[in-house]
Amino acid sequence: MTADEAAGAAAAWQRLAVRPDGAAPVHLDGFHALKHALRFGADVRFAVATDRAATLALAAEMAPDLTGPLDALLVDVTPAELAGMVARPHPTGVAALATRPAAPPADRPRAAPLVVLDNPRHLGNTGAVIRLAAGVGAAGVLTTGTVDPWNPGVVRAAAGLHYALPVARCEVADLPAGPLFALDPEGSDIRELHLPDDALLAFGSERHGLGAAVRARADQLVALPMRPQVSSYNLATSVSMALYHWLAQQPRRPAAGPDIGGG
Fold this sequence. Notes:
The chain is α/β, with parallel strands linked by helices. It has 9 helices and 10 strands. The strands form 2 sheets. Strands 7-6-5-9-8-10 form a 6-stranded parallel beta sheet. α7 links the parallel β6 (140-143) and β7 (167-169). The two termini are 29 Å apart.
């Protein structure tokens, strides 16, 4: 890459990353985040790689369905140039900017539970929840509180799977209609319950648990089985246990579509 080409790539990134209208793009860090975003229809505006040929070879091995789109998108940059574009370059040397999708209407029908994270604080935990919710086929992930679920740290932890399901922030008063089951140690054992497909499953923050507003909105408090003297589960673990309980109630469905794995 020539100096002029490098300057052009950096300038293009900067133009997209800092927009005068304040509509910040979604930062996709790493090959797998870009892979998942493309598979689920993201509008990727710009993508760079520190080794374009190696990235395309990785795509041929792990995502052959995307070799064409990636070949058309990827621009070569040096590691130093990538470090000037992103705060923490991914080990795969890949980064991209994409458009944030519009939030779907709150009243759209649901055939799977909607995960509600009440005031989550840990970006990695929130991303892990989005990733597993996408894998299970949940209806979406909503968060309350001040942390944007599209924060670059959350998107990185979710490996770009924000595009596989609706992800948004909302107020408790604006949660969609449907029976809300709030996870709490004092609730009914989840193993004794049938979770309806249109359920909302609410989980409290890592330190403070459920807020008063979510408790007031809840139709029922639900508890996960846990050994005495163990204080709590990790947030993503709690969500996975609750979603698996719902999933185990469903008839077996044939696998379809591309794999959404990858680290």
